[in-house]
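testing teh design pipeline on a random one, pls ignore if ur not involved
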């Protein structure tokens, strides 16, 4: 979720004039990633960008692609800020991008003098090579520089990027819930659409909330750990990721190995038995309201 500062910014269209990577090939992507659906760009020289479509650098586009690390990496490759290809320093053949998309690897051990794999960072020889910030944060700061923002406002942006947004705390109650946003197939026929979820939480005491679009259930626990403070009491339904039984043992968010260091307490509502938690009262209205707001934004 973007901060109010970013949401209030006007939908300006702008052009970034940035130094090209020294090792960047002049050839750009022939076919952009399907998740981004960005048009192909052509580069007039290795030191400046001649844009076929300036919408790639529009404020709303930049803020959207910097909401997730993977999207930001693909966008930087499309616009030429990160190398599309990387040559192995040992055999001079093209390297492959690792599944994590954070490193380039070459596994041709027989062609290497030392008989070992070669590995290079994804941002090696790029504008971001020596940056200590996350890639998404750096790109947003570059956006502010390209807009010629005053130094005070740019500093405010940087402070917002550094701050950790968390809800809950010792003695506080946070409700979490999830809802599917994938398009349903009529009569279970036709094209199969990718499944993704909207997951969020609401602090009962302050009303502060967070929301994130997630692609897999495995992403739910890291998001809980990122946005909910230590020692928070979490309320949920009986979604299998939160509550399940394995080998005569009940697994909850309280004893989950991923969240054990957070010292959460956890209660849940079994809607097949009752609609109101006997200890903490009704659950779900606040969180469902936040989901309705996010769903309207998605439409």
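output:
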């Amino acid at each position: 979720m973007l901060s109010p500062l970013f949401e209030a910014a006007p939908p300006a269209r702008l052009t970034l004039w940035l130094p090209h990577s020294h090792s960047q090939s002049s050839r750009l992507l022939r076919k952009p990633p399907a998740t981004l659906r960005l048009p192909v760009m052509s580069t007039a020289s290795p030191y400046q960008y001649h844009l076929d479509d300036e919408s790639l650098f529009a404020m709303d586009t930049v803020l959207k692609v910097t909401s997730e690390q993977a999207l930001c990496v693909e966008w930087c490759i499309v616009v030429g800020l990160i190398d599309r290809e990387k040559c192995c320093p040992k055999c001079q053949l093209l390297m492959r991008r690792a599944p994590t998309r954070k490193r380039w690897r070459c596994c041709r051990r027989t062609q290497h003098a030392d008989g070992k794999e070669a590995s290079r960072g994804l941002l090696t020889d790029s504008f971001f090579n020596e940056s200590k910030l996350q890639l998404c944060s750096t790109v947003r700061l570059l956006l502010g520089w390209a807009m010629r923002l005053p130094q005070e406002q740019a500093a405010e942006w940087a402070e917002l990027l550094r701050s950790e947004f968390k809800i809950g705390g010792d003695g506080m109650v946070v409700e979490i819930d999830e809802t599917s946003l994938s398009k349903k197939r009529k009569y279970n026929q036709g094209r199969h659409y990718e499944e993704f979820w909207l997951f969020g939480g609401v602090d009962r005491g302050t009303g502060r909330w967070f929301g994130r679009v997630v692609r897999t259930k495995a992403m739910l626990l890291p998001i809980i750990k990122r946005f909910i403070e230590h020692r928070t009491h979490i309320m949920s339904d009986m979604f299998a990721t939160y509550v399940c039984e394995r080998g005569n043992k009940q697994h909850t968010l309280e004893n989950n190995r991923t969240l054990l260091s957070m010292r959460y307490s956890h209660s849940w509502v079994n809607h097949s038995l009752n609609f109101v938690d006997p200890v903490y009262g009704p659950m779900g209205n606040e969180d469902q309201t936040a989901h309705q707001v996010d769903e309207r934004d998605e439409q």
